[in-house]
Write a structure and sequence with these properties.
The structure holds two protein chains of two kinds.
Chain A (H helix, E strand, L loop, with lengths): L7 H7 L11 E2 L4 H4 L15 E12 L5 E11 L9 E6 L5 E9 L6 E4 L4 E4 L7 E4 L2 E6 L8 E10 L5 E4 L7 E9 L5 E7 L7 E2 L4 E9 L11 H4 L2 E7 L11 H12 L7 H11 L5 H15 L1 E2 L1 E3 L10 H7 L1 E2 L1 H14 L4 E6 L18 E7 L5 H6 L4 E6 L9 E5 L8 H4 L1
Helix pairs in contact in A: 6-8, 7-8
Chain B lengths: L1 H10 L9 E3 L2 E5 L20 E2 L4 E10 L4 E5 L4 E4 L3 E10 L2 E10 L3 E2 L4 H16 L1 E6 H7 L1
Antiparallel strand pairs in B: 1-2, 2-10, 3-9, 4-8, 5-10, 6-7, 7-8
Classes of the chains: A alpha+beta, B alpha+beta.
Chain lengths: ~425, ~150
């Protein structure tokens, strides 16, 4: 499953491309929105703060065809030498979200402005991602903004065209450094509406700047302090999740968790069909094993030891598993591939199982967030023999099933799962 | 897996510079040989966020150290155990047959706790560090025999 991206500040602390000051930089005046921040007061900060965000802005323009133009701007002031890493900034993209424009500037305390452009960026596979993917089509363009030294101001602007599977986006306005001003603007086509959900922050009502145009502004956002053994970033940091709703009658896409479950169900449709080779292997593995539980363990053991964890996620392959027959014949796959094959094998011994997508980061998906694809793992909910599905569903908080975690880490653990047979539920319901 | 472990058991040879400190005719060995990663945990005075562990964990270090010929254990820390329910630490040091046996166990049986529990966990880890920093004292057998 596709994983979450690091915030730029976290990324910068991990990645050191060398000393600031790019040979590729050229003289070029920074735009007015950057210069407007040169004498701006700094947000509240302590003497250990490496840098501050003076201004950030996100403008989302939803087009009638469902594509989204996203413009992001940020202006930072470097305060300490450790803040120089922020001059190295990654911009993520993939075929569903190509970058259409990219600029970076430095406004030094003394001297002329510097400018770097998209052609100066270093393109690479994603670096520093907490990921296990062998091959993905996710990439980064990394800008080295010159002279990101204490006292200087750096800024960037980038545009993307998003073609999301689910009409949802996020405004992540909190960082590991103080933010003085954060703005978010939304422009919708005629007849469209939106639903917003605030996570770890009180709800704000937007200002309306005309038909279909909404804007939010937040000042003085305190930084998230990084601590040992703290909850995952998504469970701590403030953000707004916004879903876009087309007019009635137009293809509404995924608007509810049920819709998302149906979408996932369609993706996996037919993928769990067993091939003759799978049937033969199941018979071989379970021959002579007297109990159903023992047979289940034998199949799970095969998945752990004979199917190597290799994630190849290209395009929709980040969400759609390979057919069970392919996973079996190639002897490799990622989490969703493994559970697809296991599900097919379990069915051969009469055990029903359900595909469940989850996010292993506590708080990343909550019961109140709009349906989205912030999932990073797939597991299998297995109906234990002798327990009817009806009974399973009716209990309010039953522990009646098991989720088999068939990822890369043997020995396989069988975890208790709050009994949801649905194909997709908010993460908190799954763990 | 068993074969891999056998290879690991056979294959690792390493030196630990400065582990034993010589003081006169004695050698002092901190018993927390594998506790390095716990030395800097929860040393900040204040806590903002809840405590979150991705999974429950238990670490067991069971090491037998062959002593140099003619060296013996002179004194060793008492068995130490700190059981806080969700966090348990124990350290056992034994000697015999020319060897020193260290067994250290650290169990964290929790996933999420409010920041208010930070002080308790901080206190627990201070005890862990104190236990790890205790020293076994070795002496040459002839010196030890003469003293006895």
């Amino acid at each position: 499953m596709k994983l979450l991206r690091l915030s730029p500040a976290v990324f910068a602390s991990l990645l050191a491309f060398g000393p600031p000051g790019s040979r590729l930089a050229s003289a070029g005046d920074a735009p007015q929105w950057v210069h407007a921040q040169v004498n701006a007061p700094l947000p509240a900060h302590d003497d250990k703060t490496n840098a501050v965000v003076l201004f950030s802005e996100t403008i989302l323009t939803v087009q009638p065809n469902g594509r989204i133009k996203k413009l992001e701007r940020e202006v930072l002031k470097i305060l300490r030498p450790d803040g120089e890493a922020l001059g190295t900034h990654p911009f993520y993209f993939d075929p569903q979200s190509p970058i259409t424009a990219l600029h970076g500037w430095c406004v030094p305390a003394v001297g002329k402005d510097y400018e770097v452009r998209e052609k100066d960026a270093v393109e690479s596979a994603v670096i520093g991602l907490d990921d296990v993917s062998f091959v993905t089509d996710e990439r980064t363009k990394t800008l080295l903004i010159p002279a990101a030294t204490p006292g200087n101001i750096i800024a960037y602007e980038f545009e993307q065209e998003l073609r999301p599977y689910v009409m949802v986006d996020e405004w992540d306005f909190q960082d590991t450094i103080p933010v003085r001003e954060a703005h978010f603007s939304l422009e919708l086509p005629r007849g469209w509406s939106y639903k917003s959900n605030w996570v770890n922050y009180p709800e704000r009502t937007p200002g309306e700047a005309g038909a279909g145009r909404f804007s939010w502004a937040i000042n003085d956002v305190a930084p998230v302090r990084i601590e040992q053994w703290m909850p995952p970033w998504k469970g701590i940091a403030s953000r707004m999740v916004v879903a876009f709703v087309p007019p009635t009658g137009q293809g509404a896409g995924i608007q509810s968790w049920r819709d998302l479950g149906t979408w996932v169900q369609n993706l996996i449709h037919g993928r769990r069909d067993p091939s003759p080779e799978i049937k033969q292997k199941v018979a071989e593995l379970t021959a002579g094993v007297p109990s159903l539980w023992g047979k289940m363990q034998a199949l799970a053991g095969f998945l752990q030891t004979d199917i190597r964890y290799v994630a190849i996620e290209l395009g929709i392959g980040g969400h759609q598993p390979h057919p069970a027959a392919d996973v079996f014949s190639r002897r490799y796959g990622d989490c969703k591939d493994k559970v697809t094959l296991l599900s097919a094998m379990l069915k051969e011994i009469g055990v029903e199982s359900y595909y469940v997508i989850i996010n292993t980061e506590r708080g990343a998906v909550t019961a109140s967030t709009p349906p989205n694809l912030q999932f990073n793992h797939a597991i299998l909910a297995i109906a234990l023999p002798g327990i009817s599905r009806r009974r399973w569903r009716r209990r309010s908080s039953p522990i009646r099933s098991w989720a088999a975690c068939c990822s890369s880490t043997p020995p396989m653990s069988l975890r208790r799962l709050a009994g949801y047979p649905a194909t997709c539920r908010p993460t908190t319901a799954c763990w | 897996m068993g074969q891999l472990l056998d290879e690991v058991r056979r294959g690792i040879q390493s030196e630990i510079p400065g582990w034993a400190a010589i003081a006169g005719q004695r050698a002092l060995l901190p018993v927390g040989l594998f506790g390095a990663e716990d030395k800097r945990i929860f040393v900040r005075e204040t806590r903002v966020h809840p405590l979150y562990f991705r999974f429950r964990s238990q670490t067991v270090d069971d090491a037998t150290i062959e002593l140099p010929p003619n060296w013996q254990l002179s004194s060793a820390p008492q068995f130490r155990k700190d059981n806080r329910g969700v966090a348990v630490y124990s350290m056992l040091i034994e000697a015999g047959n020319g060897a020193l046996h260290l067994k250290r166990e650290l169990t964290l049986n929790m996933l999420l706790a409010k920041a208010g529990y930070y002080g308790s966990l901080q206190d627990f880890y201070q005890n862990v560090r104190a236990g790890d920093e205790e020293q076994a004292v070795l002496m040459p057998a002839k010196v030890l025999g003469a003293r006895r």
